[in-house]
């Protein structure tokens, strides 16, 4: 009824070609060969993906581009919902109940502004961002309508970010906030550009301020978690994610949290989280299927960590989840996505014939439009066949696609998947081993600070290798360094204590802990001087174990 009413009013406004759809799948199926001037999107679409998810999918597949004017309509006033809508930069947001006069006015104004900016949007669609900025600056200079100014400045800041002119974009957002500190999108824009311009501490300070408001807390915690992940501080990232109520985790946020668990070898917690999210989305079939595939990938990862004889149950569950996902849909891209997962399962089962048969199916090499998760699955599969060149080709494709991702949570999760692909190819490992070897030589001659630099470089190349991490921590302690570049010694200790360690590595860590305890005048008193006194009791509790010293790992 709502769609019919809006359609009638659009007809009265003079629109001749109007299509109506009840969900994203219907819209996507009818978009081929069509160019939309205006997309009116509701947020809630019944038992289907919400409007923001649909728009993001269409934008990634380039079925909706900058030249389409997008407006959202919703009856929901929750900060979480409004925040999701604002993040996709619609031209307008109309909150129900609305009057026809208000709707007509919004549509007319949005289309007029969109037409005015059309030359800029066309260049953005062609990825010609430098020229788009030149044209936009000309429009700003000649603009005589104050009501347009805010939209023009907002677009200019987005273009500066896209062109990696982060300091200029930050200054532009600051100028907006100087006039009014209530402009939330300007705060997020400032934080993003400060972070990208390596002013991480300043961006973190602003984010901590935003955690004090219910309106912005969840998004700020997600941001802080992503920053922690970029520094390999997974325990710290987990603490930020715990500040978001589990029932209010968006799907991208739940996915991020599950990968943070997996990075700490706590796959059972990742599985438990995704199981809950999957069950709560059972009625939303598309989302349910996507979570099922994420869950299957968790089980595959768990199987990789087990011996051949212990993998059976994990792989059985993974196969069930993959087989059930999208069973009623005839989507070729989904079929390829599932086939790569089945191929990796076949390898883990030792069934090379089956794996090769799957990889020989039509379309398995056509991944230009695939998700990064599928491409990194392909990297793993082709590496398993011994076709390293093909694995490298897909790894390069995943790295290229990573640059174009705008959503923060998706980008962080994709970065972790790409890093896993890089580890699988093994290109970084020889380099890391060389740094580690040089560091060990310097350590032997008690050149602890110089050794720490080499251990740090090895750790950056291969952060999940425990030997490199433990060597770095040991170098930091012997050099009596509270921090080195992006690594804080006590926070790094916490990270390692949250990892699954074998007996030998646990002994090494216990020895390092005992050394820190003996040097508490360096680590704990200095921490208090730096304003970290509140953490001392917890850190002292962690450092009460003393065991036999161990040598650095070769």
Automatic annotation (TrEMBL):
Residues modified to 4-aspartylphosphate: 42
SMART domains found in the cross-reference section: REC
Domain Response regulatory: 1-111
UniProt KW keywords: Phosphoprotein
Pfam families: Response_reg
PROSITE patterns: RESPONSE_REGULATORY
Gene3D superfamilies linked to this entry: 3.40.50.2300, Tetratricopeptide repeat domain
Single GO biological process annotation from the record: phosphorelay signal transduction system
Region described as Disordered: 531-554
Keyword Phosphoprotein: yes
InterPro entries, A to Z: CheY-like_superfamily, Sig_transdc_resp-reg_receiver, TPR-like_helical_dom_sf
Name of the protein in its database record: Response regulator receiver protein
